[in-house]
Amino acid sequence: MSDKVLSVGKGALLLTVLGAVSQVLGFGYRVALSRLAGAQVMGLYQLVMPVYSVLLSLTAVGLTAAVSNLTSQYLALGNTRGAHQTLNTCLRIFFLLLIPLGAVVIIASDAISVTFLGDARTQLGLILLVPCVALTGVENFHKHVFYGAGLIRPPAVVDLLEQLIRAGAVLGLLICFLPQYPERVVGLIVAGMVVCEIFSSLTLCILYRRRLSRTGLHGPGEAGGVRRRRVAAIALPVGANALLGNLMGAANATLIPQKLVEGGMDRNAAIAQFGVVCGMTLPMLALPTVFLGALNLVLVPRLARASALGREGEVRRLTSRAMSAVAVLILPSMAMMVVLGPNLSQLLFAQPDAGSYLLPLAITMVLSCFCSVLGGVLNGVGHQRQVAVVSLLGGGVQLAFTLALVPLPGVGMRGYIAGALVSTALEAILCLWLTVRSTGLVPQWFSWLVAPGLAALLAALTSNLLLHYLEQEGFSPLAACGASLGFGLVLYLAALHAQAVRVREILRIHW
């Protein structure tokens, strides 16, 4: 492991490449999992995972932010002892929080599964989540030490290997032990997650210890009371915000099947429909968004530096470039997903329903990507609190739609999707308004929406015609989709060029 700190541009490129490979592997794993487990088990799995997020919010999320932030500060001062002490402090606090919470989850797993999740078949998965959270916390603390030190390569490679091990462990367990009752299948999936977390946590611990043995501990460190106060000052607001958001997400996830049943749907059918939309369709649409993490990695520190130096013009220029980059990448991706999604979902998941609701969900995904960038801009210029308020407001709107519309006969899952679209649109509008107000940005509607939107629409409509023609001529669905996708992307780039939009300039790594 090299001690050399990667530049922002190279680090972002590495994260983009490894993230893209990881995303593809993860999506392939989800496809195989969906085929082996079925829609009903995927629905039960989607019920369990919000509990995982809530437990991490209560115990680890704020502390990982403190590790990353304080490690960066201590190392900038040459105080490696202080960075090491911070890691140990956060690990102790994490286990002091997790042990009683985990004991409550295990002891009350039956009540939680029935009362809160609404399905007793989630009990085994809940119990196995506790060791999974413990290992994930250890992994994340060590990962954020590397991030705080500017060392991107080790955790990125470990993440990629973790995806491979998760896929092998989970799918291997299912192949060996299926068929089983749905509760046991969910337990097997979570057990496979535990296996991959053992690998990643141990690997990162070993890498950290090896690095520590080479560099040694230097500097005065910091008094325990001062260190704990500094950790709390970062961890408490970050953790509280994550907890509120995840609680809303968990409430929404557990309410959807219950409200579908209230509307007259059979319980198993409700779980299956929930699993199809949230466990198949949404992950398929999220596949092209892998670039967002790397984009924010480049954007946020540069904005923070420009804002600290009072360079308002540079803040506006970077923001406009980021919005243009998202538009030229995500609009054609979602347009082609709407066209090819029904065939892809049938090929990948063998579930015709996975191609339902593609248009409103694709629009939601576009708005979500814009929200991500605008939220990064606001974080970069020091408006983290406003971002948190907007996110919580959007979650509240989504929850209200779920409560009001999903139980209505004839509405069902459409109520949840309408809530997702409305809440994301509200967040996007508020984030744009806050960005304009705080930076003086003038929206560039032509380069952000009009030019890439028209080009994407032309490519989608033409590709749709070509797809139907090739299918009528007897081409296989895979060949027809591939040819239509290639033709659509070429047409999209040509349409952008005709509107004087230079994709190469927009997507340059060194901004």
What does this structure look like?
The protein has 511 residues and is an all-alpha fold. It has 2 domains: 1-238, no CATH class; 278-381 and 441-511, no CATH class. It is 84% helix and 0% strand. It has 18 helices and no strands. The chain has helices spanning 8-37, 39-59, 61-76, 80-107, 109-116, 123-148, 153-177, 182-215, 224-262, 267-286, 291-308, 312-349, 358-380, 384-405, 413-439, 445-472, 477-498, 503-506. The longest helix is centred in the middle third of the chain and has 39 residues, at 224-262. The radius of gyration is 23 Å and the shape is globular. The two termini are 28 Å apart. The relative contact order is 0.10. Mean pLDDT is 84; it is low at 1-9.
Comma- or semicolon-separated keywords:
511 residues; mainly alpha; 84% helix; globular; disordered N terminus
Q: What's the arrangement of secondary structure elements?
A:
Layout: H1 8-37, H2 39-59, H3 61-76, H4 80-107, H5 109-116, H6 123-148, H7 153-177, H8 182-215, H9 224-262, H10 267-286, H11 291-308, H12 312-349, H13 358-380, H14 384-405, H15 413-439, H16 445-472, H17 477-498, H18 503-506
Helix pairs in contact: 1-2, 1-7, 1-10, 1-11, 2-6, 2-8, 2-9, 2-10, 3-4, 3-6, 3-9, 4-6, 5-6, 6-8, 7-8, 9-10, 9-14, 10-12, 10-13, 11-12, 11-13, 12-13, 12-16, 12-17, 13-15, 14-15, 16-17
The total count of helices amounts to 18
What structural class should be given to the helix and strand makeup? Answer: mainly alpha
**What is the distance, rounded to the nearest whole angstrom, between the alpha carbons of the first and last residues?**
28 Å
The major beta sheet can be summarized as: none
**Overall number of structural domains:** 2
